[in-house]
Write a structure and sequence with these properties.
Chain lengths: 251, 251
C-alpha cells in the first residue's frame, strides 16, 4: 500500500499536469514531496494538495535550465528532509513547430528546459542518491511516432532525454541507482488549452490511443511512476515505460 | 558518374568522415564545397578533389553560426548557381562519464551536433526545394547501442539529430526534398585519438565488427552517401542507413 513510505521525492514541473499528478500519486504512496515549479502559486498549491494526503511537502521555485537553481532545490530538500530517494524530471517547455519555423530562441528553450534541465537535476542529486534510489525522466510518445511533423524540437529533445536516460542507467547501475524514462499521455490544463485551439489534431491524437481515452495524470500515470520508483521495480533500469494507453504502439 | 554536375556542400569536410564523403561525392561527378573552420585542411581536401578531376571550392565557415552558414551558401550559389546535396558532417563531441561532465559540456556538444545541422538545414532549405535536392545527416551507432557508457552527450545529440531527420523528411517530403541519415563506422583522426586513449575498448570495438575491418571514410562510407544523394535513392527518405560493417546489428 505504502510503496514509497519514508522516501523523499523531487518532482520538477509539479505545479500542474503530469508533474502534479505524479507528485500526488507518490504522496499517496507515502513519499514526502519537494514540489519544484517555475511559478510560486502553482508550487504552493500542489504542495498543499500533497500535504492533504498526509505526507510532508516543500514548495520551491526553480528554473530547471539553471544549474545553480537545481543545486539550490536539492540543497533545500536535503536541509528539510535529510535525504533524497527519487527524482522525477518532468518540467519541459513545449513549443510545437515545423523544422522551418524553429527559431534560435526555440532551440535554446526546448534544449535548456529539456535535456539540460534533466542533466542539471541528475547532476545536483547525484551526491545524495544511494543504493535503491531512482530517477524517472518524463519523455513523450511523440518521439516514437513515425510522423513527428510539427514537433521537430520537442521530438528531438525527448529523444535526447531518452538516450541520456539509457547512458546514465548503465553508468549508475553499479551503484544501485536506477534511471528510467516514462512516457505519459494525459489531459492537463496545457493539453486542454492546446486541444481547444487545435481541435482536429487533438481528435487525431485521441483516436490514436488504443485504450480509447486520454489518461488522468494522477490515476493513470501516477501509479506507474510509483511502481518505477518503488522496490518492486528494483530490476528495471534504462527502460522506456509507456503509460500512454498504447499510443506509442511499441514492442 | 551518377552525380555529374550536382552541387554538394559538406560541413566538417576538412578531415575524417566529412573529408571521405567529400572525396567520394567528387569522384561521383559532383561539384563539392568543402566547408569547415580550418582553411589549410579545407584547401588540402579541395586540392585532392581537383587533382581527381572534380570541381571544388574551400569555404571557411563555422557550421553552427547562422550568418557564416548563409555566407557559405551564398558563395556556393554564386559559384555554381544552386545546391543539390547538403551533408552535415561537422561535429565536435564531448565524451566522458556523466559524473565528470558539466552543463557547459552539454551546451557545446548540443550546439555542435544538433543546433548546427538544424541551422544548416533551415538555411539551405529554399535552395534544396528549388533543386529537389536532399540532406544527409551523420548519426552514430553509439545512440543505438545497449551500453552507451561515456557517451551521455554523443549518443543523445545524435539521437536528437536522427529524430530531426525523420521530422524534416515528413515535412519536406511533399516538397520534393529528401532527408536521410547515415551511421558510419570509420577510421578517422577522432576515432584514432579515442582508440589511443581507450586501447581496450578500441580493440573490443574493432572485434565486434562482423565484416572484420574498420571502414574507410572515402571508400566504405562515401559510396553510401553518394547512393543516398543519387536518383537511385529517389524513394528513400527519413531512413537511417548503417555504413558500419554490420556492427549495429539492426533489423
Amino acid at each position: 500500500m505504502n510503496a514509497l513510505e519514508g522516501k523523499v521525492a523531487i518532482v520538477t514541473g509539479a505545479g500542474q499536469g503530469v508533474g502534479r499528478g505524479i507528485a500526488l500519486a507518490m504522496a499517496g504512496a507515502g513519499a514526502s514531496i519537494v514540489v519544484v515549479d517555475q511559478y510560486v502559486d502553482r508550487a504552493v498549491a500542489t504542495a498543499a494538495a500533497v500535504g492533504a494526503r498526509g505526507v510532508s511537502s516543500l514548495a520551491t521555485v526553480a528554473d530547471v535550465a539553471l544549474p545553480d537553481e537545481a543545486r539550490r532545490a536539492v540543497d533545500e530538500c536535503i536541509a528539510t528532509f535529510g535525504r533524497l530517494d527519487i527524482v522525477v524530471n518532468n518540467a519541459h517547455e513545449v513549443i510545437p513547430g515545423a523544422v522551418l519555423d524553429v527559431t534560435d530562441d526555440d532551440i535554446e528553450t526546448l534544449w535548456s528546459t529539456g535535456l539540460l534541465g534533466v542533466f542539471n537535476f541528475m547532476k545536483a542529486a547525484r551526491p545524495h542518491l544511494t543504493r535503491g534510489a531512482s530517477v524517472i525522466n518524463i519523455v513523450s510518445s511523440v518521439m516514437l511516432k513515425t510522423d513527428t511533423s510539427g514537433f521537430a524540437l520537442y521530438a528531438a529533445t525527448k529523444n535526447a532525454i531518452r538516450s541520456l536516460t539509457r547512458t546514465v542507467a548503465v553508468e549508475w547501475g553499479g551503484d544501485g541507482i536506477r534511471v528510467n524514462a516514462l512516457s505519459p499521455q494525459t489531459t492537463s490544463p496545457a493539453w486542454e488549452q492546446w486541444a481547444a485551439a487545435n481541435r482536429r489534431a487533438a481528435n487525431t491524437i485521441r483516436a490514436e490511443i488504443p485504450l480509447g481515452y486520454l489518461g488522468d495524470a494522477e490515476r493513470d500515470v501516477g501509479p506507474v511512476a510509483v511502481f518505477l520508483a518503488s522496490d518492486a521495480a528494483r530490476y528495471i533500469t534504462g527502460s522506456v515505460v509507456l503509460a500512454d494507453g498504447g499510443r506509442g504502439h511499441l514492442r | 558518374m551518377e552525380l555529374r554536375n550536382r552541387v554538394a556542400l559538406v560541413t566538417g569536410a576538412g578531415q575524417g568522415v566529412g573529408r571521405g564523403i567529400a572525396l567520394a561525392l567528387g569522384a561521383a561527378g559532383a561539384r563539392v564545397a568543402v566547408v569547415g573552420r580550418t582553411h589549410s585542411k579545407l584547401d588540402a581536401v579541395a586540392g585532392e578533389l581537383r587533382a581527381g578531376g572534380a570541381e571544388a571550392i574551400a569555404v571557411v565557415a563555422d557550421a553552427t553560426n547562422r550568418m557564416q552558414i548563409r555566407a557559405a551558401l551564398s558563395t556556393v550559389t554564386s559559384t555554381w548557381g544552386g545546391l543539390d546535396v547538403l551533408v552535415n558532417s561537422a561535429y565536435e563531441p564531448v565524451v566522458g562519464v556523466f559524473d565528470d561532465l558539466t552543463a557547459d559540456d552539454a551546451r557545446a556538444d548540443w550546439t555542435s551536433g544538433f543546433a548546427g545541422p538544424l541551422r544548416c538545414m533551415q538555411e539551405a532549405f529554399e535552395l534544396l526545394r528549388a533543386s529537389k535536392g536532399c540532406v544527409v545527416n551523420i548519426g552514430a551507432a553509439t545512440g543505438l547501442k545497449p551500453d552507451t557508457t561515456t557517451f551521455s552527450f554523443y549518443a543523445s545529440t545524435k539521437e536528437a539529430l536522427r529524430s530531426l531527420t525523420r521530422t524534416a523528411a515528413m515535412e519536406w517530403g511533399p516538397l520534393g526534398v529528401r532527408v536521410n541519415m547515415v551511421i558510419p563506422l570509420a577510421k578517422t583522426p577522432a576515432f584514432d585519438l579515442w582508440g589511443a586513449q581507450n586501447p581496450k575498448e578500441y580493440r573490443i570495438n574493432l572485434e565486434s565488427i562482423p565484416l572484420k575491418y574498420l571502414g574507410d571514410p572515402q571508400h566504405d562510407v562515401g559510396p553510401g552517401v553518394v547512393f543516398l544523394a543519387s536518383d537511385d535513392a529517389h524513394y528513400l527518405t527519413g531512413t537511417t542507413l548503417m555504413l558500419d560493417g554490420g556492427r549495429g546489428y539492426l533489423r
